[in-house]
Amino acid sequence: MAALRPSPRGQSVVELAVGLIVFITVMMFGIHFAEVGYLSLKVHEAAVSPLWDSTAFRVHRMQHQPDNIGDFSTFPSIAPWVMSDANLRYRDFDGRSSTSGDRDQVSHVFTRIDGMQVRCERDDEVEFDLPRSQMPALRSPRAGDWGYYPPGQDVGAATDSVLDEIYENVGGISCTAEAHVEGLSTLPTTFLEGTKGFFQAPHSVKLEMKACAAGRTEGGVCKGRYGILLGDYGFSDADLSGHCPLQPEMPDVPCAENRAFYYAARKVFDQAGRAAGNASSEFAEFFVGYSPIDENSFFMSYRGEEDGYIERNTPPGESQDERDRPRNTGGIDHKPEAIRRNSNQCFLGLSKC
Predict the structure, then answer these.
(1) pLDDT tens digit string along 269-290?
(2) CA angle, corner 64, sides to 252 and 80, nearest 5?
(3) Are 245 and 295 members of one domain?
(4) Which residues cross the membrane (predicted)?
(5) Closest CA to 63 of 232, 298, 239, 234
(6) Maximum average pLDDT range among 233-247, 258-272, 328-342
(7) Are residues 201 and 280 located together in one domain of the fold?
(8) Rounded to the nearest 5 degrees, what angle is found at the Cα of 236, between the Cα atoms of 235 and 237?
(9) pTM, two decimal places
(10) Phi, psi (deg, nearest 5) at residue 212
(11) Which of 203, 207, 208 is nearest to 189 (CA)?
């Protein structure tokens, strides 16, 4: 009688069943981890968005006064405003609209995120400090030797800056965000476990964690932050856009249509020691016998394109100006109305030059 041989039928079904156990487990956790990563990116987005919004706000303005020209009173309100706006827009984890929807959580297949909180505050550690130094000391001539520094010169302090009372290092703002992430009941915590199960180790534990915008939690607190420096003023304000015609007969008199910028420029000139002496006038007086201006006086001139200003009357000695003028001023097509005043004094005060 022939011996019975085991039939090979059913082997592939058994292999498929065993493989599916592993494949389904890997697939479930792959989906879960992908959801955790995707939803955590929304927390990062909620922290960065108010930083970019803050760059649209006025940090300071220049006042029309000789001293304390820089006004930074609006700066402290920037961080609270962008934080409030971000918390409103990202309450539903979707910042594409100006207001949030009715939901305050997002649930996917195995993962849920809720409790979004955005925090922004003024940050003095984000800084770009001002150049600071003393004013240069002036030497007095000494026959047959190097000049010497007369005692008692007021050169200020090493912590002074030529931008004092005009620009302040107010720093910037920094933001962080956090949210609560948990695994849903659809993610099984037990599956063929135990001593007789296919998986000998515990299959899963219920996930519950805090997602931070930057880094991990430290003692349950999200300490990582993103910062941005504010205050890079480009002098594009309407208060500073007026023209400022040269007034050679009236030094230190502000131009009426751009007083704020005039006072700011003159403040820098003053705090830098003005011309630091009268060497230029003394040079002119020695060789010519006359100095046309006092170099310690302040003059400022700005003529914008809106003035249609071109120097038509080019004085002798400036022959290259006619060649370069189309590139420098925009060309004759501007059809300017203003005409340059004829020069009656030239280099070092010589007349009829």
Answers:
(1) 998 888 877 888 888 888 888 8
(2) 145
(3) yes
(4) 12-34
(5) 239
(6) 258-272
(7) no
(8) 95
(9) 0.68
(10) -105, 150
(11) 203
pLDDT bucket at 212, cuts 50 / 70 / 90? very high
For helices 78-89 and 11-54, angle between their N-to-C axes, nearest 10 degrees: 150
d(CA 60, CA 239): 12
Taking the CA atoms of residue 76, residue 80, residue 82 and residue 85 in that order, the dihedral angle to the nearest 10 degrees is -150
Residues above pLDDT 70, as percent of the chain:
75
Whether residue 43 contacts residue 176, with contact meaning beta carbons closer than 8 Å, is answered with no
pLDDT digits (tens, 9 = 90+) for 307-348: 766 555 544 444 554 554 444 444 444 444 444 444 444 545
- In one-letter notation, the amino acid at residue 348 is L
For residue 208, give both structure tokens: 């519950």
**13-35 exposure pattern, b = at least 16 Cβ within 10 A, e = fewer:** eeeeeeeeeeeebeebeeebeeb
Clarify whether residues 187 and 310 are in a common domain: no
1 belongs to a structural domain: no
Task: Name the nearest CA neighbour of 212 among 263, 239, 176, 248.
Answer: 176
**How many structural domains is the chain composed of?**
3
Question: Same domain, yes or no, for 88 and 105?
Answer: yes
Task: Dump pLDDT digits (tens) for 161-180.
Answer: 988 998 888 889 999 999 99
Q: Would 30 be classed as within a structural domain?
A: yes
Spacing of C-alpha 128 from chain mean position: 10
pLDDT higher than threshold 70 for residue 91: yes
